[in-house]
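Researcher: Next entry in the queue.
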Amino acid sequence: MLEISAEELRNIIDTNPKTILLDVRTVGEYNHSKIANSINLPVDELADKVEKLIPDKTSTVYVYCLSGSRSVYAVEEMMMLGYKNVFNLTNGLLAWKIAGFKEE
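Model: Structure for this entry, 104 residues:
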């Protein structure tokens, strides 16, 4: 599984405003706080909806949740569906906060 740190992801977002960020937490969690410009798709809806949401399976997608456990599952699920460039944010939104990065 491909992993990415909060610092590495911040650098990617800063250099590429079209970065695809996929938040796999619940709608309530997402509405409370999120990384700017992320897309919300709860992990339990992923299998049914991700191909409509992100049709290009060669797109680079960065997946996160709160601590990194649901996103690990989501990345594995996406890889089984044929996605090639899917990264898990190590330790999720918690690592993002600890690094001092802003949330919405």
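Model: Residues 2-98 form a domain with the Oxidized Rhodanese; domain 1 fold (CATH 3.40.250.10).
Researcher: Noted, moving on.
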